[in-house]
Amino acid sequence: MDHRPQPEYLETGLRPGPHAWQHAWYEVIFEAETPAGKAFDVVLLAAIVLSIAAVMLESVRSIREAWGPLLLAIEWGITLLFTAEFVARLACVARPLRYGVSFFGLVDIVSILPSYLALFLPGGQSFAIIRTLRLLRVFRVLKMGRHLSEANTLLTALRHTWPKITVFLTVIFCSIVILGTLMYLIEGRSGSGFDDIPTSVYWAIVTMTTVGYGDIAPVTPLGKFAAALIMLFGYAIIIVPTGIFSAEVMSGARSAATKCAACGQRASSADAKFCSACGAKLEERTADERR
Amino acid sequence: MDHRPQPEYLETGLRPGPHAWQHAWYEVIFEAETPAGKAFDVVLLAAIVLSIAAVMLESVRSIREAWGPLLLAIEWGITLLFTAEFVARLACVARPLRYGVSFFGLVDIVSILPSYLALFLPGGQSFAIIRTLRLLRVFRVLKMGRHLSEANTLLTALRHTWPKITVFLTVIFCSIVILGTLMYLIEGRSGSGFDDIPTSVYWAIVTMTTVGYGDIAPVTPLGKFAAALIMLFGYAIIIVPTGIFSAEVMSGARSAATKCAACGQRASSADAKFCSACGAKLEERTADERR
Amino acid sequence: MDHRPQPEYLETGLRPGPHAWQHAWYEVIFEAETPAGKAFDVVLLAAIVLSIAAVMLESVRSIREAWGPLLLAIEWGITLLFTAEFVARLACVARPLRYGVSFFGLVDIVSILPSYLALFLPGGQSFAIIRTLRLLRVFRVLKMGRHLSEANTLLTALRHTWPKITVFLTVIFCSIVILGTLMYLIEGRSGSGFDDIPTSVYWAIVTMTTVGYGDIAPVTPLGKFAAALIMLFGYAIIIVPTGIFSAEVMSGARSAATKCAACGQRASSADAKFCSACGAKLEERTADERR
Amino acid sequence: MDHRPQPEYLETGLRPGPHAWQHAWYEVIFEAETPAGKAFDVVLLAAIVLSIAAVMLESVRSIREAWGPLLLAIEWGITLLFTAEFVARLACVARPLRYGVSFFGLVDIVSILPSYLALFLPGGQSFAIIRTLRLLRVFRVLKMGRHLSEANTLLTALRHTWPKITVFLTVIFCSIVILGTLMYLIEGRSGSGFDDIPTSVYWAIVTMTTVGYGDIAPVTPLGKFAAALIMLFGYAIIIVPTGIFSAEVMSGARSAATKCAACGQRASSADAKFCSACGAKLEERTADERR
To answer: What are the alphabetically sorted keywords of the record (chains A, B, C, D) (predicted)?
Structure first.
C-alpha cells in the first residue's frame, strides 16, 4: 500500500522533512498504515467529537450553569491537544508554511485560535464577539475530512456532472423566482403570510424542496391550486439530477476499474481500448474482487 | 469552435445581416467565444440579477418606503439597458422579425414592455393592473436561459422519457383523486379541515409529494391509518420516474459519445455498429477526455 | 400497426363479434388507430374529466348551493353517455359477459350504477349511504387507464423488482414498529402527543417518509435525538428501492430493444444470444431510432 | 432446490440432529420447501402480526379498558406458541446452544422472556419496568426476518457501497453541525426556538432531510435566507448516495447473473471472462428467465 498514489484532494505536495525523526513522526501523524498512525487518528477523532459535544452543550443554559467548570476544563484540554498536534504537523513536514496555508492547515488554525483570542479580550468586550469566536470552534468538525479517502471518486463524479447540475440549478432558480412572484400576486392580500416577494420566494423554496414547514400556507382556492402544481413540479424535478449523477457514477465506476498494464494510467473512460497516456492496448480488468 | 452545430433549442435559423458591422455586433451579442462576447454576457447576467433583486425588494413595504427613489432609478437604468440590447439584437440579425417572435425575442419584449406601459397609464388606474405589470418584469429571469448550452442533453432525455413519465403522472393523478375522495369520506365530518373534495385532494397532493404542511391533518384513527398508507405510497412511487430517467440519461450519455467518422452523424443508439445516416462502420469513441 | 401484439394488461381475449357492424363499432370503441376511434377516445376522456370535476365541486357547499341544478344536469348527461358507451361495448364484442367481468368492464359498471341506485333509494334513506354512493363515481377516473399503452414496460419492471421491494417494505415495516414503540417509551408521558403506540407508529411513518406534518413532534431532548436518527434513517433508506428500480429499468430497456427476427418474440433478457421461443440466433438491434 | 447454498446471513452452520425425527422436524421448522414447512411459516407469520397488533392496541387506554382480558388471553396464547416453537427449534438442530446464541435465537428469547419475567415481578414493582418489558415484545417483529431470502443481494450492495456512504454521512454530519451552529448565531435571540445549539442542530436535521415539522422555523430575513440555502443543499445532496447505490445494484445484478459452469462460483464481476475460482472460461448466462 506504500506506493499507491495519494487521493487528488490530499496532493498538497507534502513530504516529510529530511531528518529521521521527521520521517517517523510524519508516518504517525499524516499516515494511517502503521498501528501508531491508526492510534493517533483514533485519539484525534475522539477529541474532535468530544470538543464538538462540549461546544454544543455549552450553549444550553441549564448545562452551562451546572457543568460550566468541567466544560471549561475540557475546552482547554482539547485546545492544548490541538495546539500540540498543529505544532507537530508543522515540525515534521519539509515545508511548514505550505502546510500552514493548505486547507487542513487553516482548519487547524481556526480550531485553536478562538480559544486564545478569547483570553486576550477584556471582560468588558461585546459578548457577541466572544460568542461568535467560541462558536467558530465548531469548524473543528472539518478536521474529520482527513479520514475521507473515498471522497475522491465522488468529487470526480461531481466535477463531471457540474455543467448539467448548473443547468438544473438555473431552472430551479428561475422557477422559484417566477412561482414565488406568482403566489405573491395570488395570495398577497389574503393575509396568509405571502406579505412580500422575498417571503413568497422563501415559501416556494420550502415547498419545492418538499420541506413544508407550514408556517406559510395558501388559503385561497386559486392559491392552493397553484401550490399543488408547484409541489408536483418540485416532486418530479428531483429525478433530473438523480438520473444525471447515477449515470456518471456508473460510468466512473467502470472507468476506474481499467488501468493500463504498461504505465498504470487509468483508462480515460469506461469504453477506452487504448491507454490515453502511452497508447498500449488496455486489457479488460474488473473492479472489486481482483484488486 | 466556430463550426460546431448550435444546440437544438437555439436553432432558430438566426444569421448575422450582410453588413460587416452586423457580423461584428452579432459575434459580441449572440456568441460567447470572443472576450467582448463574454464581457457582454457577464454584464447582461449582472443586470438581470440586479433587476430581479429590485423587483423583489420593491414588494417589501419597509424597503420600498426607505429606498423607493433608488429602486426607481435602478428600474429605469435597467429598462433602458435592456431596450438598447433588444434594439441591437434586432439590428444585427438578418431577419429581425424572426428574432422578435422567437422565444428569447418575446422574453426581451416582456422584459421592457411593462415599464413603458406603466408610464402611459393614468395615475387613477387600478393599482392591481400596475402591480401585475410591474411583477411581469420578473420574467426577465428567463433571459438567463441563453446561457444553458448544456440543456440540450437534458431536454432530449426528457423528451425520450416523456411517454413513460405521462403514465406515471396519470397514475399519480388517479391516485390523488381517489385517495382525496376517500379521505373526505373518512374525515369529512371530524372538523379536521377535510371540508370538501377539492381540499381533500389538495391535502393528498401535499402528503404524497411529502411536503406535509400540517395545516390539514387527519385526527380520526381510521383517517390516520389511511393517511399512513398514502404516505408510504407517495414515498415509494417516486422511485419509478427516477429509475426511468436514470436509465435514459445513461443510455443517452453512451449514445452521444459515438459519432460517425465518415459523416459526423451521432450514433443512433449506444449499441449501434453502423452509422444510421451513411452506413459506414462506427468506430467506438469515448465521451469526455478524448474530445 | 395492425398486427402488433396488444399490451399484456389488455389481453383479456376480447374479439369483435361476427357481424360487420360489430367489427366496425369495435374499431371505433376499442381501438385508437382510425380517426373515428381517436375522436371517440377524446370525447370519452373529456367526459371523464368533466364528470370528476362535477363530483369534486358538488362537495363544496357554496358551489352546490349556487350551481346545484347545473351539476345535476351534467351528472345525468354523463351517466347516460357512459351507459350508452357500456351498452355499445357489450354489443360489439364476441363474448359480452367476459368483457363485463374484466377490470375495465367492472370500472364501467361502478361508473354508472351509483347514479341509478340513488334513484331507487327513498328520500328518507341514510344520507351517508347516498353520499358514499355518489362519491363512488370518482372511480370513473380509472377509465383513463385504457390510454396507458406505455404502462406495460413499467409493470414488467415493477414485477421483476417486486421480491426486492418486498424486502425493503418489510425492513421499513419492522423499523416503523420498533421505532414507534421506542418513541412511545421516550415521549409517552411528556404530553407531546405520543399517547399510545398506534399514534407513535403513525408519527414514525409521517417522519420516515419525510412528510413531517408537525402535529406530533418530540419535545424532550432524548426524544429529539431519537427523532433525528429516525429522520436520517428515513432520508437514507429511500436510495435502496431507487437503486433497485433504476437497475431494472435499464436492463429492461436493453432487453426490449432486441427482438427475434424469425418469430418476433422479445429477447428473454438483455444479453440473450438466441431467441427463447424458437432458438433462432438474435441479431442485435437498437432501441429508439431504428424502429 | 435442495442443494442451493443458503443465503449468507443465514449461514449459521445449523444442521438437523442425527435422529430421523430431528431431520423431519428440521424440514418443517427451518425450511419452506415442503407443504408442511410452508404451512408452519404462514401460521408463525400470522401469530407475529397478531402479537404485534395486541402489543400496540394494549397501549391505547380505551381499548385496554374494554378488551383487556381478550388481549391478555391472546398474549399468553402467543407466548406459549412461541415457547413451543423455540423448544422445537432447539430440539431438532444438532447444536442447540449455537442456535440459541444466533441472531434469530436471541430474537426468539426476547420474544418470550418479557411475558415470563412479568409473572415473577411482585405487583408493587415499578410500573416503568413492567411497561418497558411488555413493550420489548415488539421485537417479535424481527422474527419476520427469516422470510427475507432476497435480502442477501441488497446486503451485498450495501456492503460494497458502505465506504462511499460513510463519506456521504460524514459530509452530512459536518454540514449539520456547522449549519446548526450558524442558525443559532443568526436566530438565537429572535425567540423563534433556536434556543441552543443542540436544538438548532435538531432543526438542521429536520430541514435537511426535508421532514420539516415547522415547530421551529426561522423568522428573521437572514435566517430565512440561510434556511433556504440549507434546504436546497439538503434537497440536492440526496442524489449522491442514490447515484452510488444505483450504480452498485446494476453492476451487482450483472455480476450475479454469470456463474461458472465448472465449479458454480459466481463471476467475480460483470465483465469477468474466466472463473476467478477455477479458471474455466465463463459462458454468458442471463439473469431472470433462464433460471
So the answer is: Ion channel, Ion transport, Membrane, Potassium, Potassium channel, Potassium transport, Transmembrane, Transmembrane helix, Transport, Voltage-gated channel
- From chain D, the residues in CB contact with B246 under 8 A are 246
> Measuring CA to CA, which residue among D208, D222, A65, A93 is closest to residue C236?
D208
ipTM (interface predicted TM): 0.78
C214, A213: Cβ pair inside 8 Å?
A: yes
Query: DSSP code of C279?
Result: -
What is the rounded distance in angstroms from the CA atom of residue A5 to the CA atom of residue A23?
18
Whether B94 and B201 map to the same domain: the answer is no
Residue B227 has pLDDT above 90, yes or no: yes
Tell me whether B215 touches chain D (CB under 8 Å).
Answer: no
**Phi and psi at residue A281, in whole multiples of 5°?**
-65, 135
Taken in order C20, C24, C29, C33, is the CA torsion positive or negative?
Answer: positive
In terms of domains, do C89 and C181 share one?
no
Q: Count the Cβ atoms, other than its own, within 10 Å of residue C189.
A: 12
- The DSSP secondary-structure symbol of B282 reads P
B267, part of any domain: no
The answer to whether A143 touches D173, Cβ cutoff 8 Å, is no
- The pTM assigned to this predicted structure is 0.80
Contact A181, A200 (CB under 8 A): yes
Give the span between the Cα atoms of A253 and B173, in whole angstroms. 37
Whether C154 and C227 share a structural domain? yes
pLDDT in tens, chain D (291 residues): 334 444 434 445 678 888 888 888 888 888 877 888 888 888 888 888 898 888 888 888 899 899 889 988 998 899 999 999 999 989 988 888 888 888 888 888 888 888 888 777 765 555 666 667 777 777 777 777 766 666 676 777 777 777 777 777 788 888 898 899 999 989 988 888 898 899 999 999 999 888 988 888 999 999 999 999 999 888 877 777 777 777 777 776 655 545 445 554 444 444 445 544 555 555 444 333 333
| DSSP one-letter string for B94-129 | S-HHHHHTSHHHHHHHHHHHHHHHHHHS-TTS-HHH
Instruction: Find all residues with CB under 8 Å of A8, minimum gap 6, and list them.
Output: A152, A155, A156
Q: Cα–Cα distances in Å, from D226 out to A206, C8, D186, D214, D230?
A: 12, 51, 9, 16, 6
Which range, of B81-90, B97-106, C235-244, D140-149, averages the lowest pLDDT?
Answer: D140-149
C170 and D147: CB-CB below 8 Å?
yes
Q: Count of B–D CB contacts within 8 Å?
A: 9
Q: Which chains touch D (3 or more CB pairs under 8 A)?
A: A, B, C
Picking from B113, B143, B173, the residue at the C-terminal end of a domain is B143
With an 8 Å Cβ cutoff, are D148 and C168 in contact? no
On whether residue D191 sits in a domain, the answer given is: yes
User: Which residue from A minimizes the CA distance to B196?
Assistant: A221
Same domain, C154 and C85: no
| Residue D279 contacts A where some CB pair is shorter than 8 Å | no
Instruction: Mutate one of B196, B233, B276 to test the C interface: name it (highest C CB count within 10 A).
Output: B196
What CATH number is given to the structural domain containing C90? 1.20.120.350
Flag whether D228 is in a domain: yes
B35-58 and A197-208 are packed helices; what angle lies between their axes, rounded to 10 degrees? 110
Which of B212, B242, B246 is opposite residue D212, by nearest beta carbon? B212
Which of A61, A205, A288 shows the shortest C-beta gap to D228? A205
Residue D116 maps to a domain:
yes
Rounded Cα distance, A245 and A267, in Å: 20
C172 interfaces chain B, CB cutoff of 8 Å: yes
Using alpha carbons, select from C264, B144, D80 the residue that is nearest to residue A172: B144
